[in-house]
Amino acid sequence: MKSVIKVFTLEFTGETKKPSLIFIYSGEFAEKVIRNLINDPSFCKSCGIYCDSCKYNVYSFVQDIRAAMQLPSPAELPAFIDNPEKYMPRKIPKADLCIASGLHKDLLLELPAYLHKNGVNGLIVPIENSSEVPSGLRRQVEERCMEIQIESAFPKPFCSLEADEKDKPLISRFVNSFNVGKPELDISTETRGKHDVIGSAVVRRSAPCGSTWYVAKKILGTRIERSILYDVIAKAHHSYPCTATMNVDPELKEPILHIGGYIIRETVEKALEKHRKSV
Fold it and tell me: Distance between CA 271 and CA 58 in Å, rounded?
């Protein structure tokens, strides 16, 4: 039996209204997330000539992204900014949620007030490198969001973001309706000769950067022995590539890239365990 990668159809009901998004960013990571969300056909080239367009024409959220505004990189700005509002976009469209990445620290600190003024009710700041958003700055931004009742999340890395319906309903809507955040897979196995291998992988929720699709494809036909499977997962995760830093994070005591690797490894393990219980 030939291994296949299955895809899912996104279905929405009135109960899960997609929040509208804006991106305020500097650097390449946010662009990677944007291109995954709009499902840009020229974006994912990880499989090279073996691409079978596993994810294209399956989804696109281009209509839900109201704007993507790139600000100057921190290296192009003064070390300390006295009037950060001067560097913020003059005008932004109405939106529910902002995703901010790669911003100068003073601009990030100004962002909650700026969003509140413009009617944005949620802020997600993915942390792929703790030097960009140190723990002290994160706490300051989080406190400012709480003071003006803006939902906030600081996932480290972005693929660790989970829904929290009780405390963060808006951000939970983002996770559940865009099907991005902490990855989720459905996996089935089949027997080939003397070995059980992964026969199909269904992407239910992808990492925001889109790497889950690539990992799902690369594990097809892989023997389910842990050492073999973990090696394939790690190589796929690195080669997509994961763009999180390899520098050791002061809080996690691990490189954030390693945390991302552990997350997708756990996702595959959970999917296998679910499959074992169903047969």
Answer: 21
Global model pTM greater than 0.90: yes
pLDDT tens-digit map of 50-60: 888 888 889 99
Let me know the angle formed at the C-alpha of 274 by 270 and 279, rounded to the nearest 5 degrees: 150
Looking at residue 69, its pLDDT comes to: 97
Domains annotated on the chain, with CATH: 11-178 (3.40.50), 184-278 (no CATH)
The tens digit of pLDDT for each residue in 55-106 reads 888 999 999 999 999 999 999 999 999 999 999 999 999 999 999 999 999 9
The strand pair at 21-25 and 4-6 is best described as unpaired
Distance (Å, whole) CA 64 – CA 22: 9
User: Which regions of the chain does DSSP assign to beta strands (E)?
Assistant: 4-6, 21-25, 65-70, 97-101, 122-124, 151-153, 184-192, 195-205
